[in-house]
Design brief:
By secondary structure, this protein is of the alpha/beta class. The chain has 10 helices and 7 strands. A 7-stranded parallel beta sheet has the order 3-2-1-4-5-6-7, sandwiched between helices. The structure holds NADP nicotinamide-adenine-dinucleotide phosphate (NAP).
């Protein structure tokens, strides 16, 4: 049986990954800060599936968090076949007047923890010549996002980083996928203090289950990236590349100002 490590497994997309991988007979290591939610999820999954589940309660913005996660897994003698770097958050608002500590925490979680965990588990996958990594980015990665500036930049980092790793590791039998969902029904918008009037955009909201299904399918097909959303979401990613920057940025600033 293979084992998947999922960060941000206590809710939303991470929880859906845990549920669908459990149904595929995959052992799980679940990481997040909310101990009670992780216990509840473990109980639910173990009632339905014969799999092993380990919980690591950790704030991944803490210094050396990835090392602690790695050491805990090594001490238990577990092999991670699938690493899912999913934990992430954003913060809506004007950067200059925002909480600076929160902006730094976005970088610590969305970028540093992801890079650090990947750097710890990838060499072991290389030795075994097998393994997979899914990094959860977003369609906000494809253009700068006024009023979500650090979040969108962090997601752009994940796309670039993951695709480079896809190319570096293919020959070693290791798959790296970056998944870029459009708007998904989760706690994300509340956590990010996103104004409700803007959260209900004209794009269709997808579910976490759809994100997981499409991501696992893309991973099976050795795709480097997948964009998950309706036609408007897909068109938005293309427009971001062809509309002149000044026009695009002014349009985005107008649409996303509260
Ligand atoms: N929802 C969307 O529209 C959307 C679209 C594109 C991409 N995404 C991305 O999808 C990923 C999952 O988000 P979601 O939509 O499922 O939102 P969510 O329901 O808020 O889930 C976020 C997860 O990250 C965990 N987390 C947050 N801060 C953490 C920390 N400091 N240390 C460890 N874990 C932490 C949370 O657990 P605890 O609070 O228990 O720690 C939770 O399990 C994120 O990377 C997000 O950027 C979301």
């Amino acid at each position: 049986m293979s084992t998947a490590l999922i960060t941000g497994a206590s809710s939303g997309i991470g929880k859906a990954f845990a549920q669908q991988l459990a149904a595929r007979n995959t052992n799980l290591v679940l990481v997040a800060r909310s101990q009670e939610k992780l216990y509840q999820l473990t109980k639910e999954l173990q009632e339905n599936f014969h799999i092993d589940i380990e919980i690591i309660v950790k704030d991944l913005t803490e210094p050396h968090a990835a090392q602690t996660v790695f050491d805990t897994i090594q001490a238990k003698g577990l092999t991670i076949d699938l690493l899912i770097n999913n934990a992430g958050f954003g913060d809506y608002g004007d950067f200059a007047s925002s909480d600076g500590d929160k902006q730094v925490k976005i970088v610590q979680l969305n970028i540093l923890a992801l890079v650090d965990l990947t750097h710890k588990f990838l060499p072991l996958m290389r030795q075994r010549q097998s393994g997979s990594i899914i990094n959860v980015s977003s369609i906000t990665a494809f253009q700068p996002m006024p009023y979500l500036s650090v979040y969108a930049a962090s997601k752009a980092f994940i796309v670039s980083f993951s695709q480079a790793l896809w190319a570096e590791n293919r020959a070693y039998g290791i798959r790296v996928l970056v998944t870029c969902p459009g708007p998904i029904e989760t706690n994300f918008f509340t956590q990010a203090n996103f104004p409700p009037s803007l959260a209900g955009s004209t794009e269709q909201m997808f579910t976490s289950e759809e994100v997981v299904q499409q991501s696992l399918k893309a991973l099976d097909n050795w795709q480097p990236a997948v964009v998950i959303g309706d036609v408007k979401t897909q068109i938005r990613t293309i427009l971001a590349r062809i509309v002149p920057r000044k026009i695009l940025l002014n349009m985005l600033a107008r649409s996303f100002k509260s």
